[in-house]
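Morning F.,

Quick status update on the modeling queue. The single chain you submitted on Monday has been processed. Sequence for confirmation:
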Amino acid sequence: MSTPSASPAAYEVRVAEDPADREACFAVRKDVFVAEQKVPEDIEYDAYDADAVHVLAVRQDGVPLGTGRLLHGEAAAERNGDGDPAVGSLGRLAVTAAARGHGVGAALVRAVEEAARARGLTAVDLHAQTHALGFYERLGYQAYGPEFPDAGIPHRAMRRRL
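Structure tokens below.
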């Protein structure tokens, strides 16, 4: 995928193909969502994880910095607002506290979009925590629909055409 440079160290973003990469993705999610945001662990991991495309940002020394996932096909159609199979669903975007503010989140979003394009998808939907709306808007996403709770956290649906 890409190899952006960012302080404090260079990192790469790649599709998590092997079990070690997937475990690193799940570890970042546990740190950010379960430990930091108090999302119950039993709802953080779901059946969609098995078939999702997971992306991982990792420092050159092997330290995982962030993750995200793309749902596509039937799984994405269940998640997006209109059931359109050409729309992917970006989710579980998490960046470790130490890596925030260095472009890691944006690089992960772009990697998910690249994976969506590779699968012939025409748009990506996501459910953004309301505090993160500005982040996604800067990346070209537009909010739609009312605010709703997810794991007790306010969210809005957003979409970007590819």
